[in-house]
Amino acid sequence: MIAHPDPASLPRRALLIGDQRLDSASGGTHTHVYPATGKPTADVPLAGVQEIDAAVAAARRAAPLWAGMPRDQRRDCLIRLAHLLRENADELIRLSVIDNGIVVSTQQYGPHVAADLLLYNAGWTDKIGGDVIATWPGDALDYTLDEPYGVVAVIIPWNGPVYALGMVLAPALAAGNAIVVKPPELAPYAALRFGELCLEAGLPAGTVNIVPGGPEAGAALTGHAGIDKISFTGSGTTARHILASAQKHLTPVQLELGGKSASIVFDDADLDAFARLGLAGIVNNSGQGCINPTRLLVQRGIYAQVLERLSAAVGALSVGDPTDPATVFGPVIDDRAVTRIMGMIDRAKADGARLIAGGERLGGDLADGYFIQPTIFADVAHMSELSQCEVFGPVLAVLPFDTEEEAIAMANDTEFGLAGYIWTENLKRAHRCARALVAGNIWVNGFTGIPGAAPFGGVGESGVGRLGGRHGIQEFLRPKNIWIALD
Ligand code: NAD
What we know:
seven-stranded mixed β-sheet; alpha/beta; six-stranded mixed β-sheet; binds nicotinamide-adenine-dinucleotide
């Protein structure tokens, strides 16, 4: 039986505005449920319009203080925050598991990756500047200044709050912006602790505000006149609502959205290396990861062998208690996700896909939690729902192909373009395919985290803009051009 979190071990307050922690708010409450037990943990207060207004006002007061802070001091605040994330990693990981039920063996990377991102971006604080522009005709000096936007609204999903906050806040803060974060009501706990650590690190009160809430709070924030830029991570459906709110004040928007990323396995691939990661698409976060390789395209000569290896690997997965370090596969987020995912499984069967593993909700000791068996479908039709739509759950679609051209065409024949994966021992083919795939991030013969210096983002339905590296910093800066007559 999976232990339910002790309510006494949860943060009593859920909102952080300026330096004030609030335990009640005007947006009502949300009964947060621990996905592994299906039982409530607490009634979490939700931000309403009143708290969104207060958080934006606090951020507007803090913005000039943070942007005006000497660069070395801003850098040192971010370095201190990185160290605090590491020192408080155990607590952040514990809260993250309660937030969304994702297994501790995956969550353990969150605070450390966020700390690395802060350290990388801290290095930019004293390198952000501008350019000198050639002038002609006449004697003049023309130069640019890269300036922060002011106040950035940050909307994150539930599937990795600490990681998501690291991805967005590290560059946005390094660039000199103040922030209002709206975590989802489904995962409110770790984000609040992240905000408290920002205060402990010496960021001026109001530089980072945390206001958990649902769609109403999100709409109030993204349509607010006091917001200068929006960073949204979530689904394409919500992105369209955000764009509708943002048009009110023509607020610029950066979007990190979903994916249906193809993993192409050629018949010259190192199948032992591939086999270790072949189930990544459905094991990572129980399939609830934007970049997961959820569409496996396998060259026909090795198709049967790959299917055999995948079904054997599914049987060896340890499924269950997310707090147990040995568990690799946990529950999905909530009962609505169970209904949605089981619906897609049923429709895949009806579409003629061949179920080779899983396909059921787990019972027994796990019956109260939101556990769905790791599921694999073979012979999935290329234009079917399972091949084209994001499941955001543990369901892998496997499709055969014959030629490289066919594989690339199938991989690109989707509305998404977040990631692409290539498995081959042929160097020329690897480069050829990496160039041909229409996606923001390509992995060849492996699948690891993204270095802080690398740009991350998608094309098409997968998003607009980039986080990470110099592109990520640039996302949160806008250039001002200055021309001065010298004659
Ligand atoms: P979602 O779009 O339902 O919600 C995301 C956030 O938007 C939540 O905080 C939610 O409360 C808020 N929201 C909902 N309606 C809103 C509105 N009208 N106005 C403003 N905010 C609103 O997505 P989700 O279910 O939380 O996350 C899953 C999706 O996120 C998947 O599609 C996944 O691929 C994507 N995702 C993308 C990345 C990436 O970096 N590209 C990372 C993680 C998740």
